[in-house]
Amino acid sequence: QSALSQPASVSGSPGQSITISCTGTNSDVGTYDLVSWYQQYPGKAPKLIIYGVTKRPSGVSNRFSGSKSGNTASLTVSGLQAEDEADYYCCSYAGISPPLVFGGGTKLTVL
Amino acid sequence: QVQLQESGPGLVKPSQTLSLTCTVSGGSIKTGGYYWSWIRQYPGKGLEWIGYIYYSGSTYYNPSLKSRISLSVDTSKNQFSLKVNSVTAADTAVYYCARGPHDFCDFWGQGTLVTVSS
């Protein structure tokens, strides 16, 4: 069982916005503003798209945004495009043991 | 830019030791502030953080695996390694090496599939 909870799947039409939730506990998401999000295409390595809850690495589209409230972090993808269809994973820092915990992943389908 | 490449056997027999090496290019493994991680992904499923190591040799492990794993670093070769003892079929996964500060991974290797089977 993954430490962080994500919905198994979400879907949306091109141009719409979707939000993926990531629920943790007071030991991880709720304590640290250190949530990251990764995009993964089939057969490829995950790619960092959000870190520090809201920050985007250079080169990542501003259609991706992150937020957090309490023990739940969220990834919003606005202006959905076909290329956004992928798996998305959240990750949180959780202190010393273990330092990092992942969510179970969410499959985004663009209808 | 930093690149990472996993290497090691793709097939390991049950009860034996899984050994993988990650070679880093485009940057030094001794660069301060970065942790060198191992992460695995079960077929068709989610990611599991295994552990990470600092260039000084300090290690941090997933408690669920701590009794069976060890990480090491060879700064002269710009490599770091993973060993998993007493493997079973449940250790079959794609293994990724990655780099990042203590709270996320910004560069990943392409991953290598390790199958545990007799």
Task: Detail the topology: elements first, then pairings.
The complex is a heterodimer of chains A (111) and B (118).
Chain A: E1 9-12, E2 18-23, E3 35-40, E4 47-50, E5 64-69, E6 72-77, E7 86-93, E8 100-102, E9 106-110
Parallel strand pairs in A: 1-9
Antiparallel strand pairs in A: 2-6, 3-4, 3-7, 5-6, 7-8, 7-9
Chain B: E1 3-7, E2 11-12, E3 18-25, E4 35-41, E5 47-53, E6 59-61, E7 69-74, E8 79-84, E9 93-100, E10 107-108, E11 112-116
Structural notes for this entry:
- The complex is a heterodimer of chains A (111) and B (118).
- Chain A is mainly beta.
- In chain A, 0% of the residues lie in helices and 43% in strands.
- The radius of gyration of chain A is 13 Å and the shape is globular.
- The model of chain A has no long low-confidence stretch (mean pLDDT 95).
- With 118 residues, chain B is an all-beta fold.
- In chain B, strands 2, 4, 5, 6, 9, 10 and 11 form a 7-stranded mixed sheet that branches. Chain B has a 4-stranded antiparallel sheet with strand order 1-3-8-7, with no helix packed on it.
- In chain B, strand 9 and strand 10 (107-108) form a beta hairpin.
- Chain B is globular and about 40 Å long.
- Chains A and B meet through strand 7 and strand 8 of A and strand 5 of B.
Structure, briefly:
Chain A is built from no helices and nine strands. With 111 residues, chain A is mainly beta. In chain A, strands 1, 3, 4, 7, 8 and 9 form a six-stranded mixed sheet that branches. In chain A, strands 2-6-5 form a three-stranded antiparallel sheet, with no helix packed on it.
Record keyword descriptors for this entry:
heterodimer; A: 111 residues; mainly beta; six-stranded mixed sheet; three-stranded antiparallel sheet; 9 strands; 0% helix; B: 118 residues; seven-stranded mixed sheet; 11 strands
General shape of chain A = globular
Q: So what's the overall shape of chain B?
A: globular
As residue ranges, the low-confidence spans of chain A are none
Helix content of chain B: under 10%
Q: Order of SSEs of chain A, N→C? A: EEEEEEEEE
